[in-house]
Design a protein that fits this description.
Largest sheet: 5 strands, mixed
Strand content: over 45%
Distance between the termini: 21 Å
Shape: globular
Number of helices: 1
Oligomer: single chain
Order of helices and strands: EHEEEEEEEEEEEEE
Length: 219
């Protein structure tokens, strides 16, 4: 994917989150689905939408890519809210772009910044291709127009488990910079894990406003 980076400038992403990647329609919320999906865009055309169970969802004929995605032949990760209408159709109610963020290749030593965030949820994709995170970052209108938060996934160490599997100890590094903390915005982060062997583990550490979050995920 073209947008795989190790450090994310959050200010740029937040600006993009204010726009819907797709035109949406009005419909009942009785059968609302909310899940992370991979959306392949070729030119201005949505070629496919696939969820994390590797199920290909129907592409609504009326949707089109927003200007942010047009003419960018790539695959995007999105949190998508939709309603299925039979086996061959669905209505997309809302979608939000997710960050795809690689874990750093090599272990590093501290210090690095771990300014707090709000940890909402974290889960391994059913197909094992991503570790997905939902977090909240505090933001506001900056007096310093050059101020921007940054975020990265830092490898603290890599060890072998008793079962002979690899375990990566990873920290979410976050620099709040001088950005004010007036309100919280939800961000979705997708960590690629497809290349890791089955059984490998990631122990994730995140500094939150409620204390340190530590959890181990197995592919």
């Amino acid at each position: 994917m073209r947008h795989l980076v190790k450090t994310i400038i959050i200010g740029t992403l937040l600006a993009g989150c204010q726009q819907e990647p797709f035109d949406t329609g009005d419909t009942s919320l009785s059968y609302l689905n909310a899940e992370m999906v991979s959306v392949h865009v070729k030119g201005a055309e949505i070629v496919s939408i696939v969820n994390d169970a590797d199920v290909q969802l129907p592409v609504p004929p009326e949707i089109r890519a927003s200007e942010a995605l047009v003419h960018k032949d790539s695959t995007y990760r999105m949190m998508m809210y939709y309603v299925r209408e039979g086996n061959d159709d669905m209505k997309i109610l809302r979608s939000q772009m997710a960050m795809v963020m690689n874990i750093s290749d090599n272990a590093v030593t501290r210090p690095y910044l771990t300014d707090p965030v709000t940890m909402t949820s974290a889960w391994m994709a059913e197909n094992g291709k991503y570790l997905n995170l939902s977090i909240g970052v505090r933001t506001g209108v900056e007096e310093d127009k050059d101020a921007a938060q940054t975020m990265a996934l830092v490898t603290d160490s890599v060890k072998m488990t008793d079962g002979g599997r690899c375990r990566r100890y990873v920290t979410l590094s976050h620099d709040q910079s001088t950005v004010p903390q007036f309100y919280t915005t939800t961000l979705y982060i997708c960590i690629p894990t497809e290349e890791y062997p089955d059984g490998d583990e990631i122990t994730l550490r995140v500094n939150t406003y409620d204390g340190e979050y530590v959890k181990t995920f197995r592919k």
